[in-house]
Amino acid sequence: MSPDLAIETLGGERMRLNMGPHHPATHGVLRLVVDTDGEVVANCAPDHGYLHRAIEKIGECVEWPMFVPYTDRVDYVCAMNANLAYCVAVEKLLNSDPATKVIVPMRAECIRVIVAELNRISSHLVAVGAMAMDLGGYTPFLHAIAQREGVNDIFEKLCGQRLTYNYITIGGVGFDLHANAAAETEAFLAQFEKEMIRFNQLITTNTIFQNRCAGVAVISAADAVAYGLVGPNLRGSGVDWDIRRDEPYGIYGQLGVRVPVGQAYAGRAGRVGDCYDRFVVRLLEINESVRLVRAAVQLLPPPAEKANDPLGGFQADVAKQLRKPPKGEIRARTEAPRGEMGYVIVSDGTKVPYRVRVRTGSFTVCSIFNTVMKGIFLADVVTVIGSFDIVVPEIDR
Amino acid sequence: MNLGPAVDALAIWLSGSDPAWWAIGLAAVAVWVLPLMAVVLPIAALGQIIERKVAAAMQRRVGPNSVGLDGVVRLVVRLSLPFISRAGQDRLIGRISSLPGMSLARTLGLGQLAADGVKMLGKEDIIPAGADGWVFRLAPYLALTGAFLPFAAIPFAQNVVALEVPVGALYAIAVSGISVMALLMAGWGSGNKFSMLGGMRAVAQVVSYEIPVGLAIAGVVLWCGTMDLHGIVAHQYNGSWASFLGWNIFQSPFLLLLACVLFFAGLAECQRTPFDMAEAESELVSGFNTEYSGMRWGMFAMAEYSEMILVGAILSTLFLGGYQSPIFENVIVALPVWLETLIHVGILLAKFTTVLVIMVWIRWTLPRFRVDQVMRLCWLTLVPLCLFALFGLALTMLIPSLVMPADAQATILGVAYGRLPAMPHLALGLVGHALVWIVPLALGFLLVIAARRKHGRQHPALTQLTGGA
């Protein structure tokens, strides 16, 4: 029975429930104003802004390279990818004028893929683990977080940080890989693959879990495109679109990214574009990222003497170009774990950007909340938020 | 051991030959309730330790809750697996002990429990402004009452029971129903919408699951012909060394089915994952106990563990031979009374603990059902299963009595397990067993296969994710 019908026929009354800003399932300070009829959701309005830090305004006040640490804070669950998105955008701006052209060294490009894909793994681990926890499975969450620690250990050796890395720079990366990095990464990936099989046996194929997710909050491919969903949320609805493959940046074009899409993985009860599809797409992307990391390690050229060596270096010379970049407006987008992370950069030719605008996946997904949450159970609201993998700093910036 | 005279004597001592109502009440509390709490509260604490240790080991956590299991594991493996070679034991111990934190301390982290108790007592007692004062305050006490009272009827040994009631099984489920009121009062009285939703869910769920629990108990009552818990335990005594063969779960597949139903319904009764609708930490932010703090919350926690132990106690008493040992019960009953009592209490505690560990294991493995799925499971699966099992049980009891002599019936019904009957009845008994066990088990197996097939094949991507070919 639809909630409206129930209220009309039974003479019921709606209850307004504030989920958040401090609620365990909203993954941060997001507030959902939920009107319910008993346990059934009649209306759901997301209210955000609790974590707004004016990062875009800061972008207009600091010099080009000084904005990179702020991009960490745009999405701290995948700070490497956030760094990368901004740096790719600025490099695109510089390359728009032959006078300021920047060639990122090959070794730096490989390192970028390694760290971006490792960070995608750790971000997806948080996503699937947190969704399992939202549905009451606390053990798989801790197993996922334990694996994420492995990624953090690698990053800590690389750049000294465990959460906000400030590692990828305009024109390269901050530091070269340490001597043993390739072997350590491979050792981590080898045990990680075994551990993921156990994780999937524990939660992914669990019947209760499947029944909780199957057929809940189904988003059709047309709706997904119309509401501007991106990344795994878009692919979960069966839309075959991935920037890494379709508009490749860096060396992704050479790696041949395979893109998993939603296929009603839950079996009979499943529909393309339900919560379970979004969950499984993330798990499949983890496997793909493992492959990409290995491929990038294979491509890694040996380190060169000079840091700006176009093959074995890790940082191109950009200081001069950044003092006087070309004028103009540039749009660049990259595939972050939560979908397309796009930057619109307006330059007036000075060493400070005129405007920096960030386009993130978590923000646009908020627009579809009300549509998919009408008529589902309160318990499913948690499932749906978990399946969208919302990270609140990305919404508010 | 009937404590009634002791209550009378104490009441008379307190207020003369015609004792006043308050004297009787005081005496009852002193004689029945206090010793009972002295037994149940440590067991509840034990439940908490088990919960922490099992969860920490499963989640591979390092911390105060995961330390010191090493010694216990060593002891348990050495004692319980004597038939494995020493090298095999060492390998097993090494494997379990390599979990993080297992061997960091030798005190089992017991200090943590005392520290938690002190912390809870010392915490500020907050009553929200919107709370319904006395309802809010009364709820924890009711929860504890509902969790403790049923223990009065549980026989801990042949002569150790607080309350000799001839309808012990009925009494146990009747008084455990009080805790529903506690959940509803806590949910309503908190003045919090999440708490109220939790309270409502709890009532719907607990009231529904009392039906399969009642039907499962009815099956045992039907089989044993008595509601007296002592009588039910005594009925499971077969006088041979293989005493476990006399237990109710080994008597008939229908009783086994009822035992399973009782276990899962019990899990739902005490609001444990996957049935923790009322708490649902990630949905309702702990539901009915969101607003409770300090010792009031502690009482709810105590009640929860006591209820889990109660499920273990009822399951053991009704289906797992109660306080009886799985083997050599015939030797134990011949021992001096004090030794027999000691052994029996120990065995019952071991059975509680085993059931408790399984419940904790399930909690930290499975995710949570949705509200409607919980209700559907109860009304569309468990209740029909119970009715089916009851019907089958009644038939297995009825048919032999119509077609064969009484001693053959005894063989078939399993009363004479462990003793080899004479030839004609042995043959009859074997045929009877084939009918009673093999046919229903095979049918059940086929049903499971059919259900799996109906569910459909797993998507190849999932097979790949779980390491399949």
| Outline of chain A | globular
Number of strands of chain B: 0
Order of helices and strands of chain A: HEEEHHHHHEEHHHHHHHHEEEHHHH
- Gyration radius of chain A (Cα, Å) is 22 Å
Mean of pLDDT of chain A: 86
Shape of chain B: globular
Intertermini distance of chain B? 62 Å
Average of the residue pLDDT scores of chain B: 78
Give the helix level of chain B as a range of percent. 55-70%
Query: Main sheet of chain B, how many strands, which sense, barrel?
Result: none
Which oligomerization state do the chains in this entry correspond to? heterodimer
* Rg of chain B (CA only): 24 Å
| Count of helical regions of chain B | 19
Structural class computed from helices and strand pairing of chain A? mainly alpha
| Element-by-element helix/strand order of chain B | HHHHHHHHHHHHHHHHHHH
Distance between the termini of chain A: 39 Å
Largest sheet of chain A: 3 strands, antiparallel
Could you list the spans of chain A in which at least 5 consecutive residues all have pLDDT below 50?
A: none
| Low-pLDDT stretches of chain B | 415-422
Could you characterize what this model shows?
The complex is a heterodimer of chains A (397) and B (469). With 397 residues, chain A is mainly α. Chain A is built from 18 helices and eight strands. In chain A, the strands form three sheets. Chain A has a three-stranded antiparallel beta sheet with strand order 1-2-3. In chain A, helix 7 (181-204) runs antiparallel to helix 13 (275-299). The model of chain A has no long low-confidence stretch (mean pLDDT 86). By secondary structure, chain B is an all-alpha fold. In chain B, 68% of the residues lie in helices and 0% in strands. In chain B, helix 6 runs antiparallel to helix 8, helix 6 packs parallel to helix 13 (294-319) and helix 9 runs antiparallel to helix 11. The longest helix of chain B has 38 residues, at 21-58. The model of chain B is unreliable at 415-422 (pLDDT under 50). At the A-B interface, helix 5, helix 6, helix 7, helix 8 and helix 13 of A face helix 9, helix 12, helix 16 and helix 19 of B.
